[in-house]
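Render this sequence as a predicted structure.
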Amino acid sequence: VEPPPPYFLAMPSPEALQGVSPGRSVQFTIHAWSTVALPDWSVQAIPRGTFNLGVSLSRSQMNNGQTATLTLSVPPGTAPGNYAVVYLVSALGMTDYHLAYAGVVVQ
């Protein structure tokens, strides 16, 4: 029996959707981990939602035990009830990647 393939991920904390007022931001701490030693992997934050979410990720490469900061910003004037999710893509290649999620709901 072959061992399972290595698993790696950049995971946000907190894990729940965060309520954010228009014109404000929220920060998530991103924790990288892997089941075995690996080379650095790329991390991208790809936003999707009902408004134009501001996204800033403090690192584009991560490895086991490292942390980064993800800042999500809601533009002024965004109506309450709108939402956005960021796909955090951890990738070693085009076919070797894993997803985690962070998001906001406008208050």
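Summary. The beta strands are 8-13, 18-20, 25-34, 41-49, 54-57, 61-62, 67-73, 83-93, 96-106. The two ends are 51 Å apart (CA to CA).
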